[in-house]
Amino acid sequence: MKRIIALITLLLYFFIFVPALTAAPETQTAAPPEISGEAAYLIDVQSGQTLYSKNGDQLMAPASTTKIMTGLLGIELGNPEDIVTASETMLDYNTVYGTRIYLEPGEQLSLEDMLYALLLNSANDAAVAIAEHISGNTAAFVSLMNQRAADLGLKNTTFKNPSGLNEEGHLITAHDLARIAQAAYANPVFRDYIKTKSHVIPRAKENVPIEMINENKLLWRDDTITGMKTGYTSVAQNCLVASASRDGRDVIGVILKSPGREIYTDMQALLDYGFEQFENTLYKGVGDSLGQLEIQGQPVNLLIDQALWITQKKDNTLPQPRINILPIDGELAEVAEGQVLTRLEVWEDEECLRVVPLAADRNIITEAAVEKKSYALFTGLGLMVSGVILYGAVQQRKHAERRRERAKLRQDRIQDPNRCQRR
User: Fold this and answer.
1) Of the candidates 338, 360, 382, which is a domain's last residue?
2) Rounded mean pLDDT of 22-43?
3) Helix/strand/coil for 207
4) CA-CA distances (angstroms) from residue 319 to 18, 41, 310?
5) Which terminal residue of the chain, N or C, has fewer Cβ atoms less than 10 Å from its own Cβ?
6) Of 47, 54, 67, 135, which residue is the catalytic one?
7) Distance between alpha carbon 44 and the CA centroid of its chain, in Å?
């Protein structure tokens, strides 16, 4: 066992830290943009690395950017064809005031249309209707929201409601909101919603909103914008989460508590900064080996099933993440191809950005295991032969019983022609 651990340690030693990337040729670099909002954050989606932070860990009110989490859970836990019935809660103005589509108790819409109302129009009544549909009541749904945030490793997020309306203790950081947005962006259904500019929902009522218009102004101005969510309350002021994609790279920006409409020009500058001043390098591709260990004197490569990207600022000033390969538990006498043997972690400071499974690239089977499998094979064949013989006897008996039953049925029909046939 000690020999195996020592060998693993020796072979993986060279993979603990990301190797320094080749220095890029000198290029003109620009200073980060001036952001009017009190907090802002920018991440690269592929690598997960932080590209910009302004008060990234300061607790802030998120307003309707809360609906990113509400929409994600609605998609993950619901069916788009589900019928959502609005409850009496729609009459509680303190719960559904502000932007809404004026749902009435008993009104029914598909979950798909409720999500359009939530993510495009930012309807607070749709947020409550979705929450009640998924969990039965808003309190239970809010618990799911907080649990999902905890599952993402977020320690500074506390949701109090599914809409983002002002409520004491309903707080988040720009960093945490960026991570929630990143998780939502990984869901292709969510991406389809947030990139939609407008969508008409069918409603039986008259004189109520039916065309849901995406409030994200950047989506209408810039073809590289892929969507996300706006927000505003008197406490939170202007909030915006935006995603964009250019030349195979995706970035997500967050701005919180901006005083006015300059939030859009600030976000545009922030996204441009992420694309123009940073670039990605493929560290390891799908199927590449991240290390090697030896079992029974034979090498086994540890393969990854997803690409690992490293982001670097063009002037090489961005601190690089570190990669940690976890120890392998227990003594390995044999392995199967594709068996996950350990995991790789990518860390940025004290935050784990990704966990990637590492799987064996081949089978290694002990001689004892081969003999055992051979014995099991012969035993299995013996049991199979016995089973065939037994099955034949049983079938022969059943066949005789069926013949007797059919003869009795024919006799019954002669005696009573109106009797239904037995199935």
Assistant:
1) 360
2) 80
3) coil
4) 11, 16, 11
5) C
6) 67
7) 16
Q: Is residue 368 part of a domain?
A: no
The verdict on whether 122 is a catalytic residue reads yes
Query: What is the torsion angle, in degrees rounded to the nearest 10, for the CA atoms of residue 44, residue 50, residue 54 and residue 56?
Result: 110
Q: Catalytic pick from 64, 135, 243, 258?
A: 64
**Distance of alpha carbon 93 from alpha carbon 89, whole angstroms:** 8
Residues whose CB falls within 8 Å of the CB of residue 286, separated by 6 or more in sequence, listed in order: 304, 305, 306, 307
pLDDT at residue 423 greater than cutoff 80:
no
**8 Å CB contact between 259 and 36:** yes
- CB contact set of 156 (below 8 Å; sequence gap of 6+): 57, 59, 171, 172, 173, 175, 176
The distance from CA 308 to its chain's CA centroid, rounded to whole angstroms, is 17
Q: Which domain holds residue 324?
A: 285-360
Is residue 422 assigned to a domain? no
Q: What is the pLDDT of residue 4?
A: 47
Q: Are 274 and 51 in contact (CB under 8 A)?
A: yes
pLDDT digits (tens, 9 = 90+) for 229-262: 999 999 999 999 999 999 999 999 999 999 998 9
- One-letter identity of residue 9: T
Active-site position among 47, 53, 54, 122: 122
Asked if the structure places residue 51 within a domain, the reply is yes
CB-neighbour burial class of residue 236 (10 A; exposed 0-12, middle 13-18, buried 19+): buried
Clarify whether 289 is annotated catalytic. no
- What is the reported pTM? 0.82
Instruction: Say whether 229 counts as a known binding-site residue.
Output: yes
Same domain, 273 and 298: no
Long-range contacts of 381-386 (CB under 8 A, 24+ apart): none
**How far is the C-alpha of 68 from the C-alpha of 127, rounded, in Å?**
10
Residues 341 and 198 in one domain: no
- C-alpha to C-alpha distances, 225 to 62, 184, 197, 268, 340, nearest whole angstrom: 21, 16, 11, 9, 37
Residues 238 and 179 in one domain: yes
Dihedral angle sign, alpha carbons of residues 185, 186, 190, 194: positive
Cβ–Cβ under 8 Å, residues 90 and 125: yes
Render pLDDT for 368-409 as a digit per residue (tens, 0 to 9): 544 444 434 333 433 343 343 334 444 555 545 554 554 444
Pick from 230, 261, 277: which residue ends a domain?
277
What share of the chain has pLDDT > 70, as a percent?
A: 80
Euclidean distance between CA atoms 311 and 47, whole angstroms: 6
Asked if residue 293 and residue 208 are part of one domain, the reply reads: no
